[in-house]
Write a structure and sequence with these properties.
The structure is a single chain. The chain is an alpha+beta fold and about 700 residues long. It has four domains: about 190 residues, Hypothetical protein af1432, CATH 1.10.3210.10; about 150 residues, Beta Polymerase, domain 2 (2-Layer Sandwich), CATH 3.30.460.10; about 140 residues, no CATH class; about 80 residues, ACT domain (Alpha-Beta Plaits, 2-Layer Sandwich). Helix content is about 50%, strand content about 15%. The strands form five sheets. Strands 1, 2, 3, 4, 5 and 6 form a six-stranded mixed β-sheet that branches. A five-stranded mixed β-sheet has the order 12-16-14-15-13, with helices on one face. A four-stranded antiparallel β-sheet has the order 18-19-17-20.
Length: about 700
C-alpha cells in the first residue's frame, strides 16, 4: 500500500510544493479523524482515502480534488461538521466533500428509492462542481477493487449499481480506462464463474494469436515508416465484459469475437491521423460501411478517433483506431484530462469539460422536472446508455441523440418549448411520422403550432430522458389545470343548488375549510374535486355549514362539452355519444367517467349523489366518439370493402373491425366506428342497412 510520502513524491511532478503540502495536511487530518476505525479487511480506515487520492493522482487531478479524496468520509463517518472542514481547508474543499458524502440515513421504503435519492443528491452536487463526480468515481473504484471481503449478496448489489450507474457515468464523461475496470470488476462480482471462464479462454487464445498480432503490427509499422509517418502501433485487448456483452447481445460464439484483431495507432497530430488512414487502406482492403470519423464529429462524451475495419492477411478482420496522443489521453481519462491539459489560469471549460457540464446541466433540469427520485433515475439511466446517431437541424447544426431517437426526442433536444408545441416533422424534407426512428445524417425539421400540447402516446416511443421528463411534466400541468377547471364547475353546480356560488362564499370561510382539509390554496381543493378524490356535494356542505342551508334545491345537470381533456373519459363498457342520456361517475384519482344512464355497471350507485352526477351534452359539444356496431349479413365477396365504403360515404371512420362466421352463409362483423353524435350514427346505420344482404344491425352496449 503506497504511503503519503510516495504519493507526495508523485504529486510533486505536476503540482506546486505548497499544493502538495495542503494534500499532506488533509491526509493527516483524515488520519486523526478516522483514528481507531478499521475497514472490513482489517486495515486502518485511512488506507481507503489514501488509495482514492492515488487513483486521482494517476489522472493528474488538482490539489483540491485530492484533498477532498482524503476527507471524503470525514463528515459521514466521524461526526466532524462541514463547518469545521470549511475553517480548516476552505469553502471549495468542504463543498466537494459534502457533495461526495452519501445521504445521511433516511428511511426509504426500498433499496431502489435509497439509491435514487443518493444519485439525486450527487447530481445536485455535480452541478455545483463537476469534480465531485470524479472523486465519487475514484471512491467507488477502490471499493470495487476491495469488494471480496463483503458478503455475496452485498457484493452483487454493489456490482449491479456499479454496472448500471457508475460505469455508464464514467463512459459519459469519456473515462474509458475507469469504465473498463468498473465493468470487469462488476462482471467478476456479479457472475464470478462466467468471468473466470472467459478470462481462461482469452488467456488460451492470446497464446495462439501472438504470432499473427506481431506480424500485423510489424507490417503496419513498416508501411508507416516508408511513408515517413511517425506512429506507435499497439495491439488492443478486448476486455472481458465487452466480450460477454457481445456474446449475449449479438448471439456470437467466443471464437467469432476473438477472430477480430484490434490495433491502435497513436500519431503526433490530426493531419497525420488521416494520412495514416490512407496508408492502412493501401496496405489492406477496407470493409465497406465500417469507417467512422469521430475526429470531425466527436462522440457525445468527447471521444475522438478514426475507426476502420480491414481485411488482413488470410482474410482476418482487423479493427483499427487512429488518434493523436492527446486524444488517447482524453479517451482514457475523459473529463479528468481537462485538468491535465488546462493551461495555467485558463479556467474556461472546453472540449470534454464543456460537454460534461452540458450533460450535468441536462441531468439537473431532469431532476427539477421529475415527479420523484425513481422517475428521475429511470430517465438518467436511459440517458446514460447512448449509442449515438448524428442528425442535422435545417440550418446544418449537428445534434447528438441516442440510437432509436425519434423526431420528438430531437424537438426536446432543440428546446423544451419546441418539443411541447411539436405537431409534425419533416425528415430529409419529407413529412414523416413523429414516431419514426432517426438515422445518422438525416436533416430533421420540426413543425410547431401555438397552443399545441404534448400527446401522452409520445411516452410509448420517446428514447431520451429529457423528452420523457418534459412530456410527463407538461401532462401533469395540463391535467392539473383541467382538474381545477372541472372541479370548479362541479362545485359551482352543487352550490347553485343551494342558491349560492363560489364567489359569494366569504374568504375566511374558504380558508377555514382549506385548513380542515390541510390544503394551502383553493386550487388544490378544486383539483381534488376534479380528480374525484373529494365530493363536490360534501365540500359545498362544508363551505355553507354556517349558513344553515339544509338541502339543495333542484338544479339542471352539468353540461359536457367534449373538450375537458385528461380528467374526463368515456366508459368503454357502454360507449356514450352526444344525444345519449348520460350520467357521470366520479372515480378517485381519474376524474369523471361518463356512462350511459342505463349502463348496468353503475346500476348499484346510480342514485348515490356522492358518486354519480346528472349530466347532459352541451349544444356545442365537439370531438369524435367511438361506437361499437354488430352487423349480421349474408356472406359475399368483398364484404369488408363494401362496409368500409358505406361508412365512409356517411362521413364516418372505421377504427377497428373484426369478423366471424355463424355458419357458411351468414357473417357477423364487429365494427368500431367514430361518429360526432346520435344523428351522425343514424346516418351511418342507414347507409349500412342499404347494403344487399344485411339482416340486422345492433349497437353494442354493456
Amino acid at each position: 500500500m503506497p504511503s503519503i510520502d510516495t504519493l507526495a513524491d508523485r504529486l510533486s511532478s505536476y503540482l506546486a510544493a505548497d499544493q502538495v503540502n495542503l494534500v499532506r495536511r488533509a491526509y493527516f487530518y483524515a488520519e486523526q479523524a478516522h483514528d481507531g476505525q478499521r475497514r472490513r479487511s482489517g486495515e486502518a480506515y485511512v488506507t481507503h482515502p489514501l488509495a482514492v487520492a492515488n487513483i486521482l493522482a494517476d489522472m493528474h487531478m488538482d490539489h483540491q480534488s485530492l484533498m477532498a479524496a482524503m476527507l471524503h468520509d470525514v463528515i459521514e463517518d466521524t461526526g466532524i461538521a462541514k463547518e469545521a472542514l470549511t475553517a480548516q481547508f476552505g469553502e471549495t474543499v468542504s463543498e466537494l466533500v459534502d457533495g461526495v458524502s452519501k445521504l445521511t440515513q433516511m428511511n426509504f421504503e426500498t433499496k431502489a428509492e435509497a439509491q435514487a435519492e443518493n444519485f439525486q443528491k450527487m447530481a445536485m452536487a455535480m452541478a455545483r462542481d463537476i469534480r465531485v463526480i470524479l472523486v465519487k468515481l475514484a471512491d467507488r473504484l477502490h471499493n470495487m477493487r476491495t469488494l471480496e471481503v463483503l458478503s455475496g449478496e452485498k457484493r452483487r448489489r454493489i456490482a449491479k449499481e456499479t454496472l448500471e450507474i457508475y460505469a455508464p457515468i464514467a463512459n459519459r464523461l469519456g473515462m474509458h480506462s475507469m469504465r473498463v475496470e468498473f465493468e470487469d470488476l462488476g462482471f467478476k462480482a456479479m457472475h464470478p464463474m462466467r468471468s473466470e471462464r472467459i478470462r481462461t479462454a482469452v488467456k488460451r487464445a492470446r497464446g495462439n494469436r501472438k504470432e499473427i498480432v506481431a506480424k500485423i503490427e510489424e507490417s503496419i509499422t513498416a508501411y508507416l515508416q516508408r511513408e515517413g509517418l511517425q506512429g506507435e502501433v499497439i495491439g488492443r485487448e478486448k476486455h472481458l465484459y465487452s466480450i460477454y456483452q457481445k456474446m449475449r447481445g449479438k448471439r456470437r460464439a467466443f471464437n467469432e469475437i476473438m477472430d477480430v484483431y484490434a490495433f491502435r495507432i497513436i500519431v503526433d497530430k490530426v493531419d497525420t491521423c488521416y494520412r495514416a488512414l490512407g496508408v492502412v487502406h493501401n496496405l489492406y482492403k477496407p470493409l465497406p460501411g465500417r469507417f467512422k470519423d469521430y475526429i470531425a464529429i466527436p462522440k457525445a462524451n468527447g471521444y475522438q478517433s478514426l475507426h476502420t475495419t480491414l481485411f488482413g492477411m488470410h482474410g482476418v478482420p482487423i479493427e483499427i483506431q487512429i488518434r493523436t496522443r492527446e486524444m488517447e489521453e482524453m479517451a482514457n481519462n475523459g473529463i479528468a484530462a481537462h485538468w491535465l491539459y488546462k493551461s495555467d489560469g485558463d479556467d474556461a471549460p472546453k472540449g470534454n469539460h464543456a460537454r460534461a457540464r452540458q450533460w450535468v446541466k441536462g441531468v439537473l433540469e431532469m431532476q427539477q422536472r421529475a415527479g420523484n427520485s425513481l422517475e428521475f433515475i429511470e430517465s438518467v439511466k436511459i440517458d446514460l446508455f447512448p449509442d449515438e446517431v448524428y442528425v442535422f437541424t435545417p440550418k446544418g447544426r449537428i445534434m447528438e441523440l441516442p440510437k432509436g431517437s425519434t423526431a420528438v426526442d430531437f424537438a426536446y433536444a432543440v428546446h423544451t418549448d419546441v418539443g411541447n408545441s411539436c405537431i409534425a416533422c419533416r425528415i430529409n424534407r419529407r413529412l414523416a411520422p413523429l414516431s419514426q426512428a432517426l438515422e445518422s445524417g438525416s436533416t430533421v425539421e420540426i413543425v410547431t403550432a401555438p397552443g399545441a400540447r404534448p400527446n401522452p402516446a409520445w411516452l410509448n416511443f420517446v428514447v431520451t430522458g429529457k423528452a420523457r421528463t418534459h412530456i410527463r411534466h407538461a401532462l401533469k400541468l395540463q391535467r392539473r389545470s383541467e382538474s381545477i377547471n372541472l372541479g370548479e364547475r362541479l362545485l359551482n353546480k352543487t352550490l347553485t343548488g343551494f342558491d349560492s356560488h363560489l364567489e359569494k362564499i366569504a374568504p375566511e370561510r374558504v380558508q377555514a375549510v382549506l385548513g380542515e382539509y390541510r390544503l394551502e390554496v383553493i386550487e388544490d381543493l378544486l383539483e381534488d374535486i376534479g380528480l374525484g378524490n373529494r365530493m363536490a356535494y360534501v365540500v359545498a356542505r362544508r363551505l355553507l355549514a354556517e349558513t344553515g342551508d339544509a338541502a339543495p334545491s333542484p338544479d339542471g345537470p352539468l353540461a359536457i362539452r367534449g373538450t375537458e381533456g385528461l380528467v374526463l373519459s368515456y366508459a368503454k363498457c357502454c360507449t356514450p355519444i352526444p344525444g345519449d342520456p348520460i350520467v357521470g361517475y366520479l372515480s378517485a384519482g381519474k376524474g369523471m367517467v361518463v356512462h350511459l344512464d342505463s349502463c348496468k355497471n353503475i346500476a348499484d350507485i346510480r342514485h348515490n349523489p356522492e358518486k354519480c352526477i346528472q349530466l347532459n351534452w352541451a349544444k356545442d359539444v365537439a370531438g369524435e366518439f367511438n361506437v361499437e356496431l354488430r352487423v349480421e349479413l349474408e356472406h359475399q365477396r368483398g364484404l369488408i370493402a363494401l362496409l368500409a365504403s358505406s361508412v365512409n360515404a356517411a362521413d364516418g371512420n372505421i377504427e377497428k373491425i373484426g369478423m366471424d362466421e355463424r355458419d357458411g352463409r351468414i357473417s357477423v362483423v364487429q365494427l368500431v366506428v367514430s361518429v360526432h353524435d346520435r344523428v351522425h350514427l343514424a346516418r351511418v346505420i342507414k347507409k349500412l342497412r342499404a347494403l344487399n344482404g344485411v339482416i340486422r344491425i345492433t349497437r353494442m352496449r354493456a
